[in-house]
Specification:
There is one protein chain. By secondary structure, the protein is α/β, with parallel strands linked by helices. It has a single domain, classed as Undecaprenyl pyrophosphate synthetase, CATH 3.40.1180.10. It contains seven helices and six strands. The longest helix is centred in the middle third of the chain and has 24 residues. The chain binds farnesyl diphosphate (FPP).
């Protein structure tokens, strides 16, 4: 429990969250409203990703985690999935130089073995190239599911126990968390979901346990720095208690 106790140090002094996670929803509806194919919405969503990354870095956020493609998104029409994969590859090729120049550390989380070889290679190269950067850590969740993440951690732990590298009595929350995809990073302080739906959709199920939630109606391609600022301002006024009382966290 030690790392879960709320103190005023849990947030940065000016109320800026350390870690923001985002469910980018609404690309398809954005396109439909304009009588465009769904992939036009995804394409337009790339610009919103760029603006959001830039704004996160500017605001002093340390970690940004974006949900780009879920374990369940494989069920979409093959054409849409193919176009999305192509979009990820193109965005990676186009953006990695600038991300690196801006000291962004890029990481991908998810079942990457399910992706095509070309994309896996580019992801690996981008991660290697940016791994020593000390600016914003940008996690892109692709082929990611919260349940997948938890099962993978359980599998790794079971393997360690079976090979006697660890004993069952060593298992606790911190050890479990250190086997998840976001191991070593603070849990998200704030989750933003665009597109008007209010659900978690199998995103970071373990890591979102204490996150503040912010839902906004803007469709992802329309998500602006003003929307982002509104979410941040809302977060700055939230009191995080982690099970404690008002008095224990020292807030009048
Ligand atoms: C959800 O909207 C969005 C996605 C499944 C894809 C997200 C991808 C991008 C924003 C493109 C670029 C990303 C990166 C990281 C370069 P939806 O299609 O479910 O929208 P709908 O709910 O309106 O149908």
């Amino acid at each position: 429990m030690s790392n879960k106790v709320a103190t005023k140090n849990d947030q940065r002094p000016n109320g800026v969250p350390r870690h923001v996670a985002v469910i980018m929803d609404g690309n398809g509806r954005w396109a439909k409203l304009r009588s465009l194919p769904r992939h036009a919405g995804h394409r337009s969503g790339v610009q919103a990703v760029r603006n959001t990354v830039e704004h996160a870095a500017k605001c002093g956020i340390s970690v940004l985690t974006l949900f780009a493609f879920s374990s369940e998104n494989w069920r979409r029409p093959q054409d849409e999935v193919g176009r999305l994969m192509k979009l990820f590859l193109e965005a990676l090729q186009r953006e990695v130089d600038e991300l690196h120049r801006n000291r962004v550390r890029l990481r991908f989380i998810g079942a990457r073995q399910q992706l095509n070889e070309g994309l896996i290679d580019k992801i690996h190269a981008a991660e290697l190239r940016t791994q020593a950067n000390d600016g914003l850590t940008l996690n892109i969740a692709v082929a990611y599911g919260g349940r997948w993440d938890i099962v993978e951690a359980a599998r790794k732990l079971a393997e360690k126990v079976a090979s006697k590298k660890m004993s069952v009595s060593d298992l606790n929350e911190d050890v479990f968390a250190s086997h998840l995809a976001l191991a070593g990073l603070p849990d998200p302080d704030l989750l933003i979901r665009t597109g008007g739906e209010q659900r978690i959709s199998n995103f970071l199920l373990w890591n979102l346990a204490y996150s503040e939630l912010w839902f906004c109606d803007s469709l992802w391609p329309d998500f602006s720095t003003a929307d982002f600022d509104e979410a941040l301002s809302h977060f700055a006024h939230r009191q995080r208690r982690y099970g404690h009382t008002d008095d224990q966290v020292g807030v009048a």
